[in-house]
# Entry
Amino acid sequence: MKTLKLLFFGLIVLASTSANAQVDVNVNINIPAWGPADTHDAHYYYIPDIQVYYDVPHAMFIYPSKKRWIRCKRLPAHYSHFDLHHGCKVILPYRGDSPYEYFYTHKSKYPKGYIVKGQKPHKSKGNSGHHHGENKHGKHGKGH
# Structure
């Protein structure tokens, strides 16, 4: 009986300890190969040279089209001149759903040609970073 009481007490202590133990792991698995190496908790990048946002958790570009902002997995053809690997990406501290609400502030603070000193691209497997989602063999991946 004493063993059963000790076992029961041990289970209660173990259950209460594990219930209070929390592990806070913040891993961003959508960091693109062309994203900044120092990305750890970024939700958005602003790309000054093409005035486009990138939503890191959702792996979506956000770009202007006429009088609205479009979300898409890949950039349209008119951005084909831009090299995502070597172009500047500014990590924004913004946490909402519409970083473009601050577009004019971002455009002014980070003009075309802006440089983040020492920025190196993040390297991960499986994402070549081509603007149309093409892999290294020139074949298209998934669309919008």
Observations:
- Helices lie at 2-20, 103-109.
